[in-house]
Write a structure and sequence with these properties.
This protein is α+β, with helices and mostly antiparallel strands. It is about 20% helix and about 30% strand.
């Protein structure tokens, strides 16, 4: 027997926090009885309905994917564009991407059927570092780097990159290569940070999520995370 909100999160339906909200709103029933108490326990042998949808349990799987350019991070796309799930036709689980990379952004992306895990990775309080390499228009100056390090207001929140460094400058083409690490989980964060110092991003690649990188993978390829890697990710917030 487990707490009801944990079972719902483990099913991949939503995060544990969202499940708690749904329980308090009276949108969850167990064996026909509406539940509003957060301490209620159940098992996957029970009939659990959330917003009228039957919850069933799937074994949890976690994948690391090298997202190509020109692919959207959604389960379906109304414009008919290729989605990340098109690369997982051989997987029989109901996977979803953990966060998003823009259509024109490449690099590391996690996919899973574990809603609680996804919420953990994305939540800013856990400060899971995401490391990017950005090619931008113009020459990024030391003063501009200093401005980014001092914090930029995005979505009514002061955002501080964990690390930022200009790795290369091409004066002929008037471009810069910038390495930047963020952990705030704000939409288009790197692009908006660079725009705040008047540099548009030409190319963007996410190289790492914490200790995970793209070693051994080509664009469009994937691999499963090991149980050890999943455990290491969960331990990250405890070590900060």
């Amino acid at each position: 027997m487990e707490r009801l909100q944990k079972l719902i999160a483990e099913s991949g339906y939503c995060s544990r926090r969202k499940a708690e909200e749904l329980i308090k709103q009276g949108k969850v029933s167990v064996n026909g009885k509406i539940i509003t108490e957060l301490g209620t326990k159940a098992s996957f042998g029970d009939e659990i309905l959330v917003e009228g949808n039957l919850i069933d349990y799937e074994e949890k799987e976690y994948y690391l994917f090298y997202k190509p350019r020109g692919v959207v991070c959604t389960t379906k796309d109304d414009k008919g564009r290729k989605t990340v799930l098109d690369y997982f036709d051989d997987v029989d689980k109901r996977l979803f991407p953990v966060g998003r990379l823009d259509y024109d952004t490449t690099g590391i992306l996690l996919l899973t059927n574990d809603g609680e895990f996804a919420n953990y990775i994305m939540h800013p309080k856990n400060k899971i570092d995401k490391y990017y390499v950005a090619k931008v228009k113009g020459i990024v100056t030391p003063d501009e780097v200093k401005k980014l390090k001092s914090g930029v207001k995005l979505d009514n929140k002061k955002v501080y990159p964990s690390r930022i460094k200009v790795k290369d400058i091409n004066k002929k083409n008037m471009t810069s290569i910038v390495h930047i690490t963020v952990h705030d989980g704000i939409n288009h964060e790197v692009k908006r940070l660079m725009e705040s110092i008047n540099h548009d991003v030409i190319k963007l690649k996410r190289e790492c999520i914490s200790f995970l990188d793209l070693s051994g993978l080509k664009s469009g390829e994937k691999r499963m995370l090991s149980k050890k890697e999943v455990k290491q990710l969960y331990n990250l917030s405890q070590n900060k």
